[in-house]
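Morning!

As promised:
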Amino acid sequence: MATVFKKPHALRDVPLHYCPGCTHGIVHRLISEVIDELGIEGSTIGVSPVGCTYNNYLYFNCDMVQASHGRAPAVATGIRRALPDKTVFTYQGDGDLAAIGTAEIVHAATRGEKITTIFVNNAIYGMTSGQMAPTTLLNQVTTTTPYGRKADLHGFPIHVCEMLATLEGTAFIERVSLHDIKNINNAKKAIKKAFEVQLAGKGFSIVEILSTCPSNWGLNPLEAMKWLQENMLPVYQLGNFKGKDLEV
Amino acid sequence: MMHQEIIIAGFGGQGILSAGRLLAYAGMLEKKNVSWLPSYGPEIRGGTANCHVIISEDTIGSPILNSATTLIVMNKPSLEKFENLVVSGGIIISDSSLIDKKSERKDITTYEIPATKMASDMGNTTYANIILLGKLIAKTGVISVESFEQGLKKVLPQKYHHMIPEEIKALEMGMNY
Amino acid sequence: MGEKLLMKGNEVIAEAAIRAGCRHYFGYPITPQTEVAHYMAKRMPKIGGVFLQAESEVAAINMVYGAACTGVRVMTSSSSPGISLKQEGISYIAGAELPAVIVNIMRAGPGLGGILPAQGDYFQAVKGGGHGDFKMLVLAPCSVQELYELTVEAFNLADKYRIGTMILGDGTLGQMMEAVEFKDEENIVHYEKNWATNGTNMERDHNIITSIDTNPEILESWNLRLQDKYKQITENEVRVEEYNCDGADLIVAAYGSVARIVKNVIKMAQKEGIKVGLIRPITLWPFPVNSFEKYAEVTKAFLTVEMSAGQMVEDVRLAVNGKAPVSFYGRTGGIIPTQQEILDKIKSILNR
């Protein structure tokens, strides 16, 4: 009998704790498929963030380290410098990476640390229940912007890929989305390329993944996908910002 | 028991700290207990600099000096700041080409040496600190010239070893002034 | 033993770490400890090690955390304000039970304070400066030679107990030069690190290093395990110097460079017919309670001298437990107490 669907080896066979319709599960699966395909599970160390995925170390079969809020790139730097032959990735949300951890991500990137960052952007803080994120859209309602995010009060959404692309240490930067199958497939390609860039020793790689948070957006999963498409895509342009043609 | 507490003070860039280090190194080579403590801060050049050096046959307690048996000064503010720390019967050695003032204390011995002028005549003002050290060695016997030379060889990078004969000449000029 | 070298305290810390097998250093410049970084920057590339100047103290301690996860010997150094910034990471290191060596060459505070020597971070070091119930093993050297020996030992202790170990010195100690004699061979104790996250190699289940568990029963059991470890350390790792204490009229408690000043005071006092002793805690945590208990029975008075407004004195009072009066003398702001000041204080306590 032909196997048409199976769980990737790098993903452990345990129930995930995420809310129904949350896209973190998809991201976990894509990373695990890539780890399987590259055959690097035994030589990979992942770094979990603070946020909804704080304990995703339970879900990956590779060695895992939990980092304090925003510091995953620094922790990953320590690991990668100590283990120059291994593969290291960080998994970070928009609050972790683009607010409290801004300095760490910028400097890991500009040093060209040979690490891969999976950056999940759902425009809101999930774990602490729906506060404004640095990537929250203008006019978006959150628990700390109950009247909508206003530029003059709260500033503008931060564009991480565009910002990091200005740094010489970055080798591969791409923004993808999970709102349909085609885009999910593109996301996997980008994640794979990001890991390959690290394996080839080319420098820092990051994939920003536009994701949904149905619970905190107050939408059902389908509406959330639609909201992402209609509201996030115009603000966060999909595509490659660096390293598209990099030989790996 | 030999126990010398030496404060060397002047402007940053005059070789204040390195003079102290040379002294301490030579003392260590003579199997004496030594300590060297610099003033430290943001000013690397031009600011005030001083160091505390202890060379002793006894174990050294604190490396911080609240009094000195000998004070070497290379600028006027340092003389004014530290002259009262010199113990009765102690020594002040000052660079008289840079300091136009004399210590008014009567219970100590002062030596005024135009060290910077003498060093300049030798063709290199950076020897001024060594000239002053020469007087210290002559008057206290805290270390020997031989140890000083050995210390120089240890402390100076190889590429500066050609300067050692001149340094010793400067030291002897100070000793004989 | 090799030949004697004249070296700066800060440089000796770095050299000692390298001799102890540390090949990973992450730091951020701050006076008066920066020479540690200079030395590491020069040496590490030549011996296949890693020196990395982080973007901040916060990043540096998290790099230490990451490197420690892989099982390598790793160190960071800083000075008071920088150590405050590292406290979150130090708490995580405690929670995740990682071995790491953290050097604090203290300067005056609070706030940006000043760059001159102080001992105002005692509470932060021994009571756990970060959040949660944790301890660091805290070593307080008083000479350049001891900086060397205790730094090497700090790595062994960190590995043995999987604990953050701090070298607590002050600006005087970091900046001064003294003779140091390195051993031909260091006592490096190797501990099995099967907990390290260095890749499963598909040969074992994955290792996880974390400091979080949202189940209170499990988290309490972690805490109890930590407390058990701290108890073991308290029983086995106390280090102290008792100097001139037998039959002393008064015993001074002091650590680090202040203890050196007190040794001079003891000589001065002797000339005036006053017998002064010194208890110098070498481990500030665990604190040498027994030494104080022992002498509290027979000594009339204690005096704690610190370059702070009075921190270690609280531990001395706890240890003396009311059996003798404990006085305090301290200077702050970067001012070092003089021998005369301390002697005057002793005389006033003894009514001499």
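The CA atoms of residues 162 and 241 of chain A lie 7 Å apart.

Hope this helps with the figure draft.
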